[in-house]
């Protein structure tokens, strides 16, 4: 599998990756999409709820919210969406001296950084959104902070530390901070010297971690063993999102919970399929592909969600 290349970068915000997430349910503030900007070097991510994906909206957010805070990147990488490659956008890149790059069509490996963030932030939003999925933009700033301050294996540290050279003060830290800190205003020159002297070393470590992380990921995928389940083991079942005909149903598949159960494995039906017991429908045989199963770890009593998973019996796919 082709991996995303390690670009030659001058440091933070040398390469900016941009993507759009949505459409999501329209919030009370009128937002329907998320514009995502990710620094390829430090993995620092900015995400902004917006009402549309017009080039004018993208340009405004890029200039006012990103470039005015972090400076102009050498390169900007995106897909070939019209809002990113329009004549207006191209003129903006030329004026600002940004070298525009584009992903190869249908090549998600090249977009791995933002795809990983999009997946992570959606999983986090699922925990907090209301039943109608219409308040997701309320939680976005706090979820972003959690993402930026979390340890990233690829970096060997958090995006926050890699960008600012220090860890943020968290609420728990306030209980243990010295009320008379040793840091004084006249220590600023010394702090600047320390930061400058450590920057080259931090950059080297980040680049090495990025390469090491990609190598480990590729090795893990190549050595991956087939997944199998024992009879009577408890599992989660992935259920495809289906929307009701009710016009008041504003749910979206991006914010819906897809893993249902736990269910009990009855027996193995084929090389990659299993029969699942449905307590509420004991006479029904439901066959599920192993790709839609994952182990349930914990005490099993009865399914938390009693909906019947989709049947994937081989008979369903026989054609003449």
From TrEMBL:
Signal peptide: none annotated. Residues 8-167 form the Integrase catalytic domain. InterPro entries: Integrase_cat-core, Integrase_p58-like_C, Retrovirus_Pol_polyprotein, RNaseH-like_sf, RNaseH_sf. GO terms for molecular function: nucleic acid binding. GO terms for biological process: DNA integration. This is Integrase catalytic domain-containing protein.
